[in-house]
Design a protein that fits this description.
alpha+beta; two-stranded antiparallel ribbon; single chain
């Protein structure tokens, strides 16, 4: 199931299905985004995130916003085990890949799928905090690990 729609800002925070053209564009973007993240290499295993079922096309949501030329992209991923020590790195790899490759205006949110990790709330905060992301990418060891995951996947 893919989620496409127009986010309507009102007191009830309702998502209203948009026009067919918007829906077609959202579906197209879901496929493009999934293609960008599915081949990212797992940080500790020789498989890709797709091969390990960490990411799936069902975990990609694209909606339009009140600002017609901006899309809201949400990625939900499933770590391989509930105590995965590298879940933050996986989220960081997904974020870096999409920030580099998405050519359209977007707001990006990345989350661990609910109930799939023992510290999902803390990790979700880390991978969606601009300052933490910038600090992580300034760390030469983390940057090298992320670059290797992205390079090996392409």
């Amino acid at each position: 199931m893919y989620t496409c729609g127009r986010l309507i800002s009102n007191d009830f925070n309702v998502i209203k299905m948009s026009t067919v053209n918007d829906e077609d564009k959202c579906l197209e973007l879901v496929g493009e985004i999934y293609d960008l993240i599915k081949d990212i290499q797992d940080p500790e295993k020789p498989e890709t995130l797709e091969e390990l079922n960490v990411v799936s096309e069902d975990g990609v949501t694209v909606t339009t916003t009140d600002n017609d030329d901006t899309f809201h992209v949400v990625i939900k991923f499933v770590p391989t085990v509930p105590h995965c020590s590298l879940a933050t790195i996986i989220g960081l790899c997904i974020r870096v890949q999409l920030q580099r490759e998405l050519s359209f205006k977007h707001k990006l949110d990345i989350f661990i799928a609910e109930g799939t990790h023992s510290t999902e709330e803390e990790i979700n905060k880390q991978i969606n905090d601009k300052e933490r992301i910038a600090a992580a990418m300034e760390n030469p060891n983390l940057k090298e690990l992320v670059e290797n995951c992205l390079k090996m996947g392409n």
